[in-house]
# Entry
Amino acid sequence: MLGHSWATLLSPQDKVMAFGPMQKQLLGLFGWLAVSFAAAAVGGFASANAGDFYQQLTRPAWAPPSWLFAPAWALLYLLMSVAAWLVWRERGFRQAPITLSLFLIQLGVNALWTWLFFVWHLGAFAFGEILILWALILCTVVAFWRVRPIAGALLLPYLAWVAFATALTYSVWNLNPGILA
# Structure
């Protein structure tokens, strides 16, 4: 390694970022952040009064406090955005239309869960939908991993959180049959 410039240690993708059109890369990052946080906003709008509703529900002893959800989701949406940006940076939409479309589909399914559970109080549908969401996230992890392993790895906390949320959804739904039809 001695005698080599640091630039020879960079991957081709990193060289594009370091030496290529920086504005395009930053716009791409901001675009993926905007798309991801727009989905978060749709869910956030639906959960505006979720704290009160969540407190009324009978929850298992292992359920997290309501204040934990907002920071956890903010971090997860940030990680999702960076993962999608890395795939886009590597291949673009033209070379990875299915992979990036899968990401967008799971974002929409994610936003729908909040409406099903917190607004419409449809526990059974929310549980069925979150199972589909988990499967879509798993497919997205695999697809991202094939393009850029770090992008897939960035989605693993999201997959784990949704697995936990799946168990929580099932438990809360079963503990509240009169509220969550």
In short: The mean pLDDT is 91. The helical segments are 12-19, 22-46, 50-56, 69-95, 97-119, 123-147, 149-154, 156-175. The radius of gyration is 19 Å. The chain is about 80% helix and 0% strand.
